[in-house]
Amino acid sequence: LQVDKGHYRHYMAKEIHEQPEVVGRTLAHYLDLASGTVRLPFAFDFDARALSRVTISACGTAFYAGLLARYWLERFARLSVDIDIASEFRYREAPLPERGLMIVVSQSGETADTLAALRYARAHGQHVLSIVNVETSTIARESDTVALTLAGPEIGVASTKAFTCQLAVFACLALALGRARGVLTEEREKELVAELIATPGLMAQVLKDEARIEPVARDVARASSVLYLGRGPSYPLALEGALKLKELSYIHAEGYAAGELKHGPIALIDFSIPVVVLAPHDASLEKTVSNLQEVAARGGHLILVGPNSAKVAAAADLAGFIEMPETAAGAFAALVYALPAQLLAYHVSVFMGKDVDQPRNLAKSVTVE
Ligand code: AGP
């Protein structure tokens, strides 16, 4: 299959810009847009009410999608989640619940560790549901249920559109499980589906204002280390933002849960380390803002990614501000906030003259252990 870059300089840029479309397409596959409810293209062939927990395993960015989905599965489906990276999970000898549900996540569907995690789960009587982007892949073939991400081929080694499509599938799955388990009312489901349906439009809005990210990227490109902070679903997003920056620019970066700051990383704070704070308007905004102020009080180099109301609430000196739409709020804001994290890493890499689509030492699909 021949995929071209269109008018973009890099595949990654094209794939970032495709997100409103491919996330919209993925959502349309899992939702009934007319009634504003979830409608999965497959039936659960396990008893959703009898589940006590879900196990999730994946690698890299796909793992972060799972980590983020944990917040949704716990909140909307009242399912506890055991999640681990596949290279650890496969050897942990984890006891698994009888007739439990295992979800594996993989863009390529060929990642060796994720496949091994799947096979372990199958051997231990789990129903395996895979969220994959390649329908013909080994992981898809060996799963009981396949939930496709309709991202289209992803060429850039750094995963972008596959990630947001994985989030879209997980969001729909969490709502469907919530309904099937009788813990989510139809009214609440409709409110949440409306939020999901709004995300592609919000993504497009963020992409339209891409130029604002360039000065922030030039600033970050001078650093030798960068910290990403987030709370709730923004915590896995902080991990993902740090991974993107590492892969693309070779700048050391770490993601941290904002509330964990004072348990160690706050010792790092000085003006040489940019601190990127992901602060969507969600249930934890107030707490995130207070963590931001802790950084500000120590002379930190703050870059805020959030709505203007967060900037006003922070009332702190900012070295950079990536303004996000006020309406990118609530439980699924992470789908929209993934974009500035991707764009920042992309522009830092371009500015530094790195190989954006093919970073050193990395392979698109890791088929060996
Ligand atoms: C993401 O930017 C990475 N290149 C990498 O972490 C990737 O997500 C991981 O290797 C998993 O790949 P998969 O989704 O194809 O299984």
For the structure shown, list the relevant keywords.
single chain, alpha/beta, five-stranded parallel beta sheet, 369 residues
Task: Describe the protein.
It is built from 13 helices and twelve strands. It has helices at 11-17, 19-30, 60-77, 86-89, 112-123, 138-141, 161-180, 186-208, 213-221, 234-249, 285-297, 308-314, 333-351; strands at 31-32, 37-38, 53-58, 80-85, 101-106, 127-132, 145-148, 225-230, 252-257, 274-278, 301-306, 320-323. 53% of the residues are buried. The mean pLDDT is 96. 2-deoxy-2-amino glucitol-6-phosphate (AGP) binds next to helix 3. Its EC number is 2.6.1.16.
Q: What's the gist of this structure?
A:
By secondary structure, this protein is an alpha/beta fold. 44% of the residues lie in helices and 16% in strands. It has helices spanning 11-17, 19-30, 60-77, 86-89, 112-123, 138-141, 161-180, 186-208, 213-221, 234-249, 285-297, 308-314, 333-351; strands at residues 31-32, 37-38, 53-58, 80-85, 101-106, 127-132, 145-148, 225-230, 252-257, 274-278, 301-306, 320-323.
